[in-house]
Specification:
alpha/beta
Length: 543
């Protein structure tokens, strides 16, 4: 039965294989899923990152329409999950010398943490930040505020991703007219909803086996210690099967039917079928299919094992590994992880920790499948209602007009902002190109400065290139972005490039002036006399 109650939560997940949307309402400690919809993401999302904004917008709009039909209520906003290949953790240490023994204040710790947000990657931004530990005068301290000391050291874990990850998601939702309540880091909210407190405290690694990526999150002492996204997933198995050759349309069914992550665990009489017959009548050995699947899954698991070592928590994960995601449905997946990682405590998480039920409208959502744990985790993380006017409420439509107009305005602003960012990136490219031109001209001037045409080209370039590269166009682009915090790093990079170009042009001007002077009548005479003096001096020394 449809609902007209707007007090529901909406969560959207933009994953590599599909976009999923759910709406639910929490009551008496139980989340009831009221509506569920999904759309294929072929051609718009790769490895968790939106690369075709228009197609993703269309798929998202379809999701929203389906959910609204079941809810009988307009959706105003939603929680959205962030993930993808570029997401990873970056650890940094910030130090402070207080000069004298002083009590450590909240303001000092906040200042240290704020400084930790600065990262040495111009194309990335910090999505979240987690304190790891503090050291005061060589002593490790869990809570430094109020402790007396002279030297303070804070270690932080930044969760970072490419700038375009969040920017593209914001543009898609703005185009669809849906406000984003909060952008949630999907793997961390997944961890909070499938791992137990004991596992996070004792130390464990969550492995989310997705379609295009595999995400690893390491916990110890209830703190996230490491996050990395491996650009390999179950779709890589499909690509491998297509080389046998098998038609792409068949690869998913073949993987599901014959997939075995650890054939060593299979009984001798367990597999009787010797050949698989393709839709076009060809026969392929089942053993060959299984070997292809096992080899690729083995590579994915080996990468996970290596990343656990890179996290510096190998051997410290007393609670072992927890596996989830669509790729974990493969036969003998737990045994394969135990065999490859040498971790003997591995479990499969097929559902979230909290109580969840589904209404008749959302019965297609399977609650006990590992591929649904991520979207349910996003839904469970939501707290604010996302509904608008009921479709049965005429006045609601009147009120909605003003809100729709506001959304259109925000959409236009988001599109303009995206265009401004693209334009500034092009200008930075132009500045780099201009810098290279100046370097080439200086080299030519050094080698062929006696040639008048070379000097004239160099002089002409020095007079025009600054206006061309960092003139009015550059100033307008800076003005369009200067008050927007997310472009601060890009603006800084642009300013540094502009300064570098100015210095290069100054140097070119100096070289042009020197070359002109050296090759004037007076200059040639001066060089001739200097050479003559040097020659006489050399002859005198020989005598």
């Amino acid at each position: 039965m449809a609902t007209s109650d707007k007090d529901f939560i909406v969560a959207i997940e933009l994953a590599s294989s599909k976009i999923t949307g759910v709406a639910g309402k929490k009551k008496d400690g139980t989340m009831q899923v009221l509506a569920y919809a999904e759309e294929d993401t072929a051609g718009c999302i790769k490895r968790g990152v939106v690369y075709n904004i228009e197609k993703t917008y269309q798929s998202l709009s379809n999701i929203i329409t389906k959910l609204e039909k079941e809810l009988n209520t307009k959706i105003q906003r939603a929680y959205v999950g962030l993930g993808g290949q570029s997401m990873r953790s970056y650890k940094c240490v910030i130090k402070r010398n207080l000069l004298t023994q002083s009590y450590i204040s909240n303001d000092l710790i906040d200042a240290i943490r704020s400084e930790s947000y600065d990262i040495p990657f111009s194309d990335c931004e910090v999505l979240d930040n987690y304190p790891q530990e503090f050291v005061v005068d060589s002593n490790s301290v869990a809570e430094p505020v109020g402790v007396m000391g002279t030297n303070v050291e804070g270690e932080f874990l930044n969760i970072i991703a490419k700038n375009k990850l969040r920017a593209n998601v914001s543009t898609v939702f703005a185009n669809a007219g849906i406000d984003v309540v909060e952008e949630l880091i999907s793997p961390l909210h997944l961890a909070n909803n499938v791992l137990t407190d004991a596992e996070k405290r004792s130390g464990c690694a969550l492995v989310d086996l997705g379609a295009d990526t595999t995400t690893l999150v390491v916990f110890k002492n209830n703190i996230v210690r490491y996050l990395v996204t491996i650009p390999l997933g179950s779709n890589n198995i499909n690509k491998d099967l297509a080389t046998l050759p098998v038609d792409e349309a068949e690869t998913e069914d073949i993987k599901i039917k014959y997939g075995d992550a650890c054939q060593d665990a299979e009984s001798a009489d367990e597999s009787q079928e010797q050949h698989y017959t393709t839709t076009d009548g060809r026969q392929i050995e089942v053993a060959q299919i299984k070997n292809v699947i096992e080899a690729r899954m083995g590579e994915i698991i080996a990468n996970v094992s290596n990343q656990i070592v890179n996290s510096d928590y190998s051997g410290k994960l007393l609670a072992g590994l927890v596996i989830t995601g669509g790729g974990s449905n493969m036969k003998n997946i737990v045994k394969a992880f135990i065999k490859s990682t040498k971790v003997d405590k591995v479990r499969l998480a097929t559902k979230v920790n909290q109580m969840v039920t589904t209404s008749a409208q959302a019965s297609a959502l399977k609650l006990d499948r590992p591929e649904t744990t991520s979207i349910l985790s996003l839904l469970l993380s939501g707290t604010l209602p996302c509904g608008g006017a009921s479709f049965e409420n005429t006045q609601g439509y009147v009120d909605q007009q003003a809100k729709d107009e506001e959304r259109r305005r925000k959409q236009e602003e988001a599109e303009a902002e995206a265009q401004d960012a693209i334009a500034f990136d092009k200008i930075k490219g132009d500045i780099r190109e201009a810098y290279e031109k100046v370097q080439i001209q200086m080299k030519e001037l050094k080698n062929y400065g006696k040639d008048k045409a070379v000097r004239q080209r160099a002089q002409q370039l020095s007079l025009t290139i600054l206006d061309d590269a960092i003139g009015e166009k550059y100033e307008k682009a800076v003005a369009a972005l200067k008050d927007k915090e997310k472009f601060r790093q890009s603006l800084t990079e642009g300013a540094e490039l502009a300064e570098l170009l100015k210095k290069a042009v100054d140097e070119l001007i100096q070289q042009v002036n020197k070359a002109n002077s050296d090759n004037s009548l007076f200059g040639r005479m001066r060089i001739f006399l200097n050479d003559l003096v040097n020659e006489d001096s050399s002859d005198n020394k020989k005598k």
